[in-house]
Write a structure and sequence with these properties.
The complex is a heterotetramer, with 2 copies of chain A (79 residues) and 2 copies of chain B (151 residues). Chain A is of the alpha+beta class. Chain A has 3 helices and 5 strands; from the N terminus they run E-H-E-H-H-E-E-E. In chain A, a hairpin with a 2-residue loop joins strand 3 and strand 4. Helices cover 34% and strands 33% of the residues of chain B. Chain B is built from 4 helices and 8 strands, in the order βαββαβββαββα. In chain B, strands 1-4-6-2 form a 4-stranded mixed β-sheet, sandwiched between helices. The chains are: A alpha+beta (79), B alpha+beta (151).
Chain lengths: 79, 151, 151, 79
C-alpha cells in the first residue's frame, strides 16, 4: 500500500490528486495505475516526469512500505 | 534564514521592514518582489501548486547554498501558493550582506533558480481557459548563468 | 519616478509597500536598502552632506536615464542626509519593470552610480575622530561596469 | 557679489560653509578668497575640486551677477 500524489497536469489527466494504491514496489504501482487508467499510466511514464518516494527524487525501482508516499512530478514551472 | 510557502496574500514591505530591523553590521539588503501581471486582462488568476515538505525543502537547500556561496548574513524567501490575483505578490526574496554586490547577486541568483527550477506547478486561468506554464527560454538562460564553478 | 533627499529616518519597508501598490502590469520590483554599519563600534555616526537642488537634480537625471536604458515602468530613490546612526537606512532604491532582469539591472546600476558618483560628501565620525570618505576602488570598479554603450 | 558655498572638507578648512563675497568674475572671487585665506584658496584650486555656478558645473572663467551662487565641490563620496 502506498499513498500516491499527482501534481500539475498529471492530476488534471487523472481527475484525482491523491489516493492509496496497493503495491509493494514502484513497478507494481505503475502496473496497477495502468490497469485503472491507461492515459494516466502513459503520462506518468514520460521522460519528463520525475518520481519522489518519501519526498526524495529517485530513478528506477523502489520498494514501497505501507507508509510510503509516491509523488509523480511533471516538469516544474518554477514559481 | 527562513523559507515560507503560504496561501494568504502578503505585504512585501512588511516583510522588508522586519528583515531590515536590528542589523548593526549589515550594509546591504537586496530584495525582489514578483507580482502577478494582469496581461491586459488575458490572465485573471494564477494558480501555484507546491508539494509541501518537498518544495520548501528544495528552496531551503537552495537558500543555504546561496548563503554559503555569496557569504550572506541572512536570507528570506516567502512564496505564495494557490490562486493569486493580478497585482498580488507571488514571491518575495531578501538577502542581507555586509556589501551590496553579494546581496544583489544572491538575490538575482535565487530568483533565477526559483523562476526556472523550483518545484512549483503553475497554471494561468484566463477568459480562454486554463493552461499549465513551463519556464520560458529566458528563465532557463538566466538560471544557466549561475551554473558551473562559482566565481 | 521620484527622488527624495531627507534628514529624517525612513522605513524601507513602508516605501516598498507604497511603491508596490496598485501595479497590475508590473511583474518585477527590485529594491536595495543601504544601511549604516556599526563596524564593531569603530563608526558611531555617518554624516552625509548634499547640495540641495544640485544633488537631487543629478540623481533625478540618472534615474531618468536608467528608466530609458532599462525600460523601467517606475523608479524611486530616497536618500538620507545629515547624521545617520548605525543600523539606520541610508538609501532605498526601488525599480519596477515588466520582467525581473530589467528591474535587477537597473537597481544594481543606480546603486553603483549612487555609491561612487553621486554628489554627496560623507564623513565617518567615530571614537577616533572624523574623516571624509571617498568611493572605494570596488565602488569605482562596480560603477565602471556600466560605462560605454548600453547593451 | 556672489553667494559662495563650500562642501565637505573645504568647509572644514575654511571654518565656514556659506558666505557672500564681492566679485564680478570667478577669478576675482578666487583672488578675494586667497587674500582672506591662503590655505582655503590652495584647497579650492586643486584639480579635484569642481565648481558649480548656479548649480551647473563649469570649467574656467565665469561672469558673476549679484545673485550668482558659486559652489566649490571636493571629490564626491557617493552616498
Amino acid at each position: 500500500m502506498a499513498r500516491v500524489l499527482l501534481f500539475g497536469r498529471l492530476a488534471d489527466i487523472a481527475g484525482w490528486r491523491e489516493r492509496d494504491v496497493a503495491a509493494g514496489t514502484l513497478s507494481e504501482l505503475r502496473a496497477t495505475l495502468a490497469a485503472l487508467d491507461p492515459d494516466l499510466a502513459e503520462a506518468l511514464s514520460g521522460p519528463s516526469v520525475q518520481v519522489a518516494v518519501d519526498k526524495a527524487l529517485l530513478r528506477g525501482e523502489a520498494t514501497l512500505s505501507a507508509t510510503s508516499e509516491v509523488a509523480f512530478l511533471p516538469p516544474m514551472s518554477g514559481g | 534564514m527562513s523559507v515560507t510557502l503560504q496561501a494568504e496574500p502578503f505585504d512585501p514591505g512588511a516583510l522588508l521592514t522586519a528583515f531590515a530591523a536590528g542589523r548593526a553590521e549589515t550594509g546591504a539588503i537586496a530584495s525582489f518582489t514578483g507580482l502577478a501581471r494582469a496581461e491586459q486582462g488575458t490572465t485573471t488568476t494564477l494558480e501555484l501548486e507546491a508539494y509541501p515538505g518537498f518544495t520548501d525543502a528544495a528552496i531551503a537547500e537552495m537558500v543555504a547554498a546561496a548563503v554559503g556561496r555569496f557569504g550572506l548574513q541572512d536570507a528570506l524567501v516567502v512564496h505564495r501558493i494557490g490562486p493569486i490575483a493580478p497585482g498580488e505578490a507571488i514571491v518575495f526574496v531578501a538577502t542581507a550582506a555586509a556589501h551590496r554586490r553579494a546581496a544583489f547577486e544572491a538575490c538575482d541568483h535565487l530568483m533565477d533558480w526559483l523562476k526556472s527550477r523550483a518545484p512549483f506547478w503553475k497554471k494561468e486561468v484566463g477568459p480562454g481557459g486554463a493552461r499549465w506554464i513551463e519556464p520560458t527560454q529566458q528563465d532557463r538562460t538566466d538560471a544557466a548563468r549561475w551554473d558551473g564553478d562559482p566565481k
